[in-house]
Give the backbone structure.
Amino acid sequence: MKSSWWMPDIPKSAVLRRRMFWAYVFVAAPVVALLVFLAGPILFSGWVSLHRWDMLSPVGDMPWRGLQNYVFLLTRDTIFIKALGNTFLFAIGGVGANTILGLGFALLLNSRIRGRTVWRVLYFMPVITAPLALAVMFSFIFDRNYGVVNNVITALGLPRQPFLSGPHQALMTLIFIAIYQYVGYYIVIFLAGLQGIPQDYYDAAQVDGAGNWQAFRFVTLPLLRPVMLFVVVTNTIGALQVFDLVFATTGGAPANSSMTVVLHMYNTAFKFSRMGRASAMAFILFAIIMLITVMQVRLLRDRAYQD
Amino acid sequence: MSKDEHSLPQSAARALKYLVLAGGAFLMVFPFVWMMIASVMTAGEIQMRPPVWLPAQPQFDNYSELARSIPIGRLYFNSLFTSGIIVLGVLLSSSLAGFAFAKYRFPGRELLFYLILATMMIPFFVTLIPVFFIVRQLGWIDTYQGLVVPGLASAYGIFLMRQFMVTVPDELLDAARIDGASEPMIYWRIVIPLVKPALATLGTFTFIGAWNNFLWPLLVLNSRELFTLPLGINSLRSLYADNTNLLMAGTAVAVVPMLLLFVFLQRYFIKGIALTGLKG
């Protein structure tokens, strides 16, 4: 059957046409749902970002603002600019630590070790726990007055730390919680990647006289590139969208020192009813995420070919 | 690598390995343990100076007090019910559409599949405002439909199922057709049993996502009778602002059963997650 790049010819036989009919039946509901709840909304969101809208006035009467929402956000909304910076730091800290720790612990678990399953389960527990529940647990653990971390610190004779309530510590503490939350996931991913590397490669390296470090550098790392790419990309995308954790610990406080983009967007939209501005925020973050993803893919993939 | 196991540096390295693993595992488990301990302390013990590390007398009454102030059963029902429907919906819609994309030729197939791939990349926050608006226009604010329907189809799910179904041999389908099987029958009797592992993985993922979801229920639900577990914990934050022991009891009630379930099914959970990680 000859077909153009996007559309095969309509088949002539009744049997094939009958099959085609069923194909349409199978895709109909899912595709309609995706159009209504994903594709349509993203177009609508783009349209709203060019207007002023409180969601109560009719869609047809939204006053046109052009790019003013975008200009305002990038030049005058100091909270947004602060939130962008915080979100970047949060992502860089979390992704860096999770990649290094994830790979490190995966290497440990991949070596000759007893109780691999048990270790894996323990490290994975936070991954399946609701982020909101973790946020509540850690708000208490890092509490300035009654938190167990401060109990230990003061028992050692050191000064009490504000952690989540300190303007210089809140974001750091959130990064720590995010590492706690997701490192187990990346350990499991890296471990699966390591177990996919054939033993022959290591045997060959050993024959060539490679030591442990050289085997890691010239066998493990290059072969792990696709997994590395997956880990870095998904972790970055996830970290840039953080909401639950910040909402239920600091709420962006103190003095917006831990405000993140999605939390600021949530406040702008659902507390202050500025849908246009919030939609513009969403698009800016979306553009940033796409840009970073493309950069990461190019960087990690190109290197894989060069090696 | 295969040197004498009992040489001194070797066993020192082994000891260090276990020490690092144990240290990490302690950090992982401690927050949960501390939550459990605090949940059976008195409010006074939590604020004691110098701090106490264990309750003098475990206050299991905290849990009965918790049960008196929030409808735990109701929260569990709502979470199970809505997550269950979302899982069924995603499995059905993903496998049907994935099947069509993998095994049929029809005009518009490429175009629609590009649409799926494009929407797969869209983060939730970009569509949050419009979807909320749509749900409100439909009159679904503060209903189960409002919570569930926007999550019933998943671009990622369709993509995943298509990738798995492409590997099902065409000969198998043709043989069934010769035996007189209809297309829906082929889907249900032949393809679905063959992709069960993929369905299990997608189902697990979807379930955890729906079960732990917070932002969407926070926006859509207002009545306490419809609250899911994360919303329940969230409402405890203000209710028990001064009773951290009860707040921890509430969090434990929401978190521990899921953890136990995970421990029982861990092999299966982790295998699936590693699988999709490598596929992606």
